[in-house]
């Protein structure tokens, strides 16, 4: 198991200099990956966050969000070893040929360092501006993954589906690894978790409580095995929307708080079979690198 960090590629502090400093620092201290995410716009009206919470204003930081793949392409030229991940891209907002080619190009330019976290999308405003129906987005997501895998396969490529059609074509570049980069599903609802397992994707859940995380992983692995996949072969990448801090916290969610507190939590997430833990922190970038370096120095190998 290794660790990663969400890049400061959004909000008022986002800048080319900042994302480069954090990515280079993350590679220097030995993190496994840096991560970006996608947000097309910040509606000014209240939004049902995640598609299920009561309507509320979205975070002000979402007014400026750098495009995730352009950001990672920029960083591919400034780093050499660290993996470059998305957590997550809303796949149905993009034509599968376009997204598959962009991911493959980044993979080639970075020497095979891409990890593609994908979601099915939730915000009605983003579907509207992308010109994509929001209905049946789960089925659309499943077919989108199949179409991208076809693009990454041998030429000639052909795909005939309900939502997407690709005429017999040559489409390149191909990703570094046969079949494409590792794919993770950033999903929450049990039906979406089961769908990801049937598709043979890895899992990228946000941890809110231990019980929620353990139930999600259990649901995923049962569905994967039922679909004929080896659950142990599908990566589990746990996302933490919270910070490591210099001082302990009396009230905290899993994998947040001081380094000592997080060290106590690591055994539990390791027992779930997590391949990677990434933090999306709310503290200053230099503080994030400092606490993660401390965690790396003290975490069992």
Condensed summary:
The protein is an alpha/beta fold and 301 residues long. The protein has helices at 16-29, 68-76, 96-109, 124-130, 137-152, 190-198, 210-226, 259-271, 285-298; strands at 2-6, 33-36, 47-48, 55-56, 83-90, 114-119, 157-160, 165-169, 183-185, 202-203, 237-240, 244-245, 257-258, 276-279.
Describe this structure in words.
The N and C termini lie close together (8 Å). With 301 residues, the protein is of the alpha/beta class. The protein has a single domain, classed as TIM Barrel. A hairpin with a 4-residue loop joins strand 7 and strand 8. The strands form four sheets. An eight-stranded parallel beta sheet has the order 10-9-6-5-2-1-14-11. InterPro entries: Lucif-like_OxRdtase_Rv2161c, Luciferase-like_dom, Luciferase-like_sf, SsuD_RutA_monooxygenase. This is LLM class F420-dependent oxidoreductase. Keywords: Flavoprotein, FMN, Monooxygenase, Oxidoreductase. It comes from Actinoallomurus spadix. Pfam families: Bac_luciferase (PF00296).
């Amino acid at each position: 198991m290794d660790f990663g960090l969400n890049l400061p590629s959004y909000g008022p502090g986002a800048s080319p200099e900042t994302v480069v400093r954090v990515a280079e620092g993350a590679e220097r201290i030995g993190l496994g990956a840096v991560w970006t995410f996608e947000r097309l716009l910040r509606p000014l009206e209240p939004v049902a966050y995640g598609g299920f919470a009561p309507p509320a204003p979205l975070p002000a930081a979402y007014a400026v969000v750098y495009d995730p793949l352009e950001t990672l392409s920029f960083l591919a030229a400034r780093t050499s070893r660290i993996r470059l991940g998305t957590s997550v891209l809303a796949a149905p907002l993009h034509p599968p040929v376009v997204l598959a080619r962009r991911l493959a190009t980044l993979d080639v330019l970075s020497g095979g360092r891409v990890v593609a976290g994908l979601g099915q999308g939730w915000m009605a405003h983003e579907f509207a501006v992308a010109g994509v129906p929001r209905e049946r987005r789960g089925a659309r997501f499943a077919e989108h993954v199949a179409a991208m895998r076809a693009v990454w396969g041998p030429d000639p490529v052909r795909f005939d589906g309900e939502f997407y059609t690709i005429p017999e074509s040559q489409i390149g570049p191909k990703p570094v690894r046969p079949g494409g980069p590792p794919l993770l599903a950033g999903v929450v609802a049990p039906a979406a978790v089961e769908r990801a397992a049937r598709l043979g994707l890895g899992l990228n859940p946000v941890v809110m409580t231990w019980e929620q995380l353990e139930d999600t992983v259990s649901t995923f692995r049962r569905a994967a095995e039922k679909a004929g996949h080896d659950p142990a072969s599908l990566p589990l990448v746990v996302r933490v929307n919270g910070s490591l801090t210099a001082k302990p916290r009396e009230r905290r969610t899993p994998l947040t708080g001081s380094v000592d507190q997080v060290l106590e939590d690591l055994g539990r997430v390791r027992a779930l079979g997590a391949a990677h833990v990434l933090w999306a922190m709310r503290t200053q970038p230099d503080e994030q690198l400092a606490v993660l370096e401390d965690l790396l120095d003290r975490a069992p190998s």
